[in-house]
Design brief:
Length: about 725
């Protein structure tokens, strides 16, 4: 046999089931390696035959077979016995017999099997190659699921069985004729025609999985999506939602990537009835309804970037009605930021849209909010670290108080460690604020001046010394810690009645802010005077990862007067006692308990409990929160807050799990808030969830009730969300 014949036969075989252009390259003389136990040439018949462990290699493509032959007269290449072809992409083709003719543009394969790079499998009784472009498989089966290890003859979790499967290598599409979707070997869906891109396609224009159902709000509805692949860096998804109650809603989402950032815009629009109020006061009017969400982030250079967030809606019920969002407070902003080493600068503008029912207070327009922060190197100034912060804020309202504030603060901190282990931290700060106030609304001692314009200046120095002595010892495999902590804080007393309180109304006093220099959440109110704060931290830490910790603390103010409202836990000279217990001895138990006790009676003013117990086979979780009298800034007590959430989850097998949850308002006049149930099956190629939800909350323009639907996620095919059955399915409960 001559060398050209060997090259020609090897190249022809490597072209089988591959790109015809590659096969032609091999014919033109691309190097081919051939290895076999024996090699024969029949001059009378013109047949080259390689037998025994035949291996042909061309670049990254490798063909293995028991026997390979090439006929010069008929131009036919055949391979028989354990035929396998490894493609450069990582895919492997298996067959019992292959035959290729007509310059490798026509071919036949017997009992073909294809293993893809993600372990998906495509198999069929017979296959053929047509015009060097199409690969057709008769009686084909496709599945990305692993076969059962105990019995590989069992059908996979799901598969697509079709009379014919055609792969178009130019358009990179896979077509199915008379396709049946089987789950656990049981046919569940049939379609005469089905197509999807092959695994080499990352994305392409086309319809996405639809949704729909029946609900008490929309009636019968459908949700249709079409994806537009505009360019490699931008796309658009069109949403169409026709319903019997609201007619047609159009929506969409646009996304684009830039070399220096990204842009994302989404929204919806419809002309439908807007229902407001309850019972006899309910009224309905046809209006334009819609929403616009968006975000953008853009880098100017390595230190500067700018961006924006947009969240606007025409009415308070639109987002929930169409399942876009459950947010009650929408925030829009634009910003400019600068970063350099330990320095930071930003300018922001904020606009808020409040969707909470019954809240009539006007949300301010914040423009600008400018901040600057700088932090010195450790030990650079008097052995400690200096800091500098600046702030400029302007709040604008059509009807209400307008506030402009300029602030600056310089600070310093140094830590000392004594030979006995005593850790001492010394901090000091000097803050200056200037307020320009328009139409002041106040409920304090100067309420008679409400509606006036004024200018206020304040200077606020403050210092704090904190000492702690961590005592640690090891007993076997457990490390023990006891750390007493003592702090003294000093600052002048401030009279803040003439300054509007925009950022310090929601006071949550607990163990996390006990040792802060100011327990107010913002800076419109600053905690002055002198006080002593003391606490104890203790813990047990096991080498295996388990731990138990305790924190307990309280503060004592030397002056009687303060700006904290009644019920905050800080209104007296002696604060409430705050603490937290956390116990996590093993992965099956996690418990935490935070509390605030009255300083005189030790009555519970606030506590929150969270716990998870049990193995994955039966895991119970719960949380409970109690607040004794929510108190407004003017001292008016409203109502207790008491809420309980319970959940039970069970992963009762390797693939199956079930969970139920219930949330309830235990305060006077409360009731059930929501309930849910979820049954889940999950393996390497499919996720199935049966979901039931019930919302007891009454909202203007929305019905309370139930929703039941299921969700299916097929690997490589996408997600299918069933039509949702909602409304008064199980009997309407009392709303709250």
């Amino acid at each position: 046999m001559t060398s050209p014949r060997r090259i020609l036969g090897a190249a022809a075989l490597l072209g089988l089931l591959a790109d015809p252009a590659m096969a032609q390259t091999a014919q033109d003389g691309q190097p081919v390696l051939l290895s076999a136990d024996s090699l024969d040439y029949n001059e009378d018949l013109g047949i080259v035959t390689a037998r025994g462990h035949v291996e042909l290699a061309q670049g990254s493509r490798i063909l293995l077979a028991d026997t390979v032959s090439y006929s010069e007269k008929t131009n036919v290449v055949t391979a028989t016995g354990n035929v396998s072809l490894l493609e450069p992409s990582g895919e492997v083709v298996f067959a019992d017999y292959v035959e290729l003719t007509d310059d490798m543009r026509q071919g036949f394969v017997d009992k073909v099997r294809l293993l893809m790079t993600d372990n998906s499998r495509l198999a069929g009784a017979q296959g053929e190659r047509v015009d060097g472009r199409y690969t057709r498989i008769e009686r084909g089966v496709y599945s990305p699921c692993e076969l059962c290890k105990e019995d590989p003859t069992q059908p996979p979790i799901w598969q697509i069985r079709a009379a014919r499967v055609t792969h178009d290598q130019e358009s990179r599409d896979v077509y199915y004729r008379d396709a049946v979707l089987e789950i656990a070997g049981i046919p569940v869906a049939y379609t005469p025609f089905f197509a999807h891109p092959d695994p080499t396609v990352e994305r392409r224009s086309g319809f996405l999985a639809p949704g729909g159902g029946f609900g008490s709000d929309l009636g019968t509805f459908a949700r249709l999506y079409y994806f537009f692949d505009i360019t490699p860096s931008q796309d658009f998804t069109l949403e169409m939602t026709p319903s019997t109650e609201d007619g047609l809603l159009l929506g969409g989402e646009y996304r684009q990537r830039f070399t220096n950032g990204s842009l994302r815009l989404s929204g919806s629009a419809t002309y439908a009835d807007l229902t407001e109020g309850f019972g006899e006061e309910q009224r309905s009017e046809k209006k334009f309804r819609g929403h616009l969400f968006g975000s953008g982030r853009f880098n100017i250079d390595n230190e500067w970037r700018w961006g924006f967030d947009v969240q606007r809606v025409t009415d308070s019920s639109h987002l929930r009605r169409y399942d876009y969002s459950d947010e009650d407070l929408l925030t829009s902003r634009g910003f400019l930021e600068w970063f350099r080493a330990r320095d930071y600068f930003s300018v922001n503008a904020y606009s808020f849209q409040d969707l909470r029912p019954g809240n009539e207070e006007e949300e301010p327009l914040v423009m600008p909010l400018a901040t600057y922060g700088a932090l010195g190197e450790p030990g650079a100034f008097l052995g400690g670290t200096w800091s500098l912060d600046g702030n400029l804020l302007a709040l604008w309202r059509n009807d209400g108080t307008d506030t402009r504030r300029a602030s600056s603060e310089v600070g310093w901190r140094r830590d000392f460690v004594a030979p006995i282990g005593l850790v001492t931290s010394v901090t000091g700060s000097l803050r200056g604020d200037a307020y320009w106030i328009g139409d002041l609304r106040t409920t304090g001692a100067n309420s008679a001046d409400a509606g006036s314009d004024s200018t206020e200046l304040r200077l606020f120095p403050q210092g704090q010394v904190t000492m702690s002595l961590p005592l640690v010892r090891q007993a076997g495999t457990v490390q023990q810690l006891i750390e007493p902590i003592l702090a003294f804080t000093a600052a002048p007393k401030l009279d803040s009645d003439d300054v509007p309180n925009e950022d310090s109304q929601d006071i949550e006093f607990d163990h996390t802010n006990l040792f802060l220099t100011s327990r107010f959440p913002g800076v419109d109110r600053l905690e002055g005077g002198q006080r002593v704060t003391y606490g104890l931290r203790a813990g047990f830490y096991g080498f295996g990862g388990g731990s138990s910790t305790l924190f307990l603390g309280q503060s004592y103010r030397l002056q009687r007067d303060n700006d904290f409202p009644a019920g905050s836990g800080l209104e007296g000279r002696q604060s409430d006692i705050v603490g937290r217990i956390e116990v996590t001895p093993s992965p099956w138990l996690d418990f935490s308990y935070g509390f605030r006790l009255d300083s005189e009676t030790l009555d519970q003013r606030r506590h929150d409990v969270f716990g998870v117990v049990g193995p994955p086979e039966f895991r119970v979780s719960g949380s409970y929160i109690y607040l004794d009298r929510l108190t407004l800034e003017d001292g008016t007590a409203t109502r207790n807050r008491e809420e309980l959430t319970l959940g039970v989850n069970s992963a009762f097998s390797e693939n199956w799990s079930v969970g139920v949850s219930h949330r309830r308002d235990l305060a006077t006049g409360g009731g059930a808030v929501s309930s849910g149930m979820m049954l889940t099956y999950q393996d390497e190629c499919m996720t199935f969830q049966l979901i039931g939800e019930r919302d007891f909350t009454r909202r203007s323009g929305l019905d309370t009730g139930d929703k039941v639907y299921f969700r299916l996620v097929f690997k490589n095919l996408g997600e299918f969300l069933s039509p949702a059955l909602s409304g008064d399915v199980f009997g309407q409960g009392q709303g709250s």
